[in-house]
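User:
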Amino acid sequence: MKKNILTFVNVLMAVSAAAALMLSVNSCKDDNDDEDEVVPTITWEKNPTFATTELAAKMDVELELEAKDGIKGLTIKVESPTATFIGLLNGMVTIAGNKSETAPVLDLIKDPGISTALAAFGVPTGSSLSGKTDVDFSLSTLVPMIMTMSPAANTNHVFTATLTDATGDTCVKKITFHYTGK
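Assistant: Predicted structure:
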């Protein structure tokens, strides 16, 4: 009986921890504990709940970034089992600590390599983001590139966007794209 209770408690704690992790991965918070402050937001009109989306050759990944106090930072961590895609992204990254064989971090404001490379895809970077309060942010041309790099069937490609405003408040949104395959 005692062993069953301990097992139940351990399972309950694991489920609670997983739920807390999920909430923290898709959350916008006030780091300054100012209840009246408006925190930054990332919204996706076509997918307001950020539900997992099937990869396709043409996609609508039009996000809106809002930061009343101005955007200070925007990073996107990309986790993908498609090595060719990860290699392409790592080739763009010039901040050494942001390169990774499995999950490079794209700093869209501070990394000049990312700024130059993503401009070709119409993705706002650098001064197009820094200090702005409202930015239309499109990943509609970048995300479908995964399809051209022979992704394995039944794989997820996760983009975790972290938006930081001038006061240090953050908004984190996990955007998952699934490839079912043919």
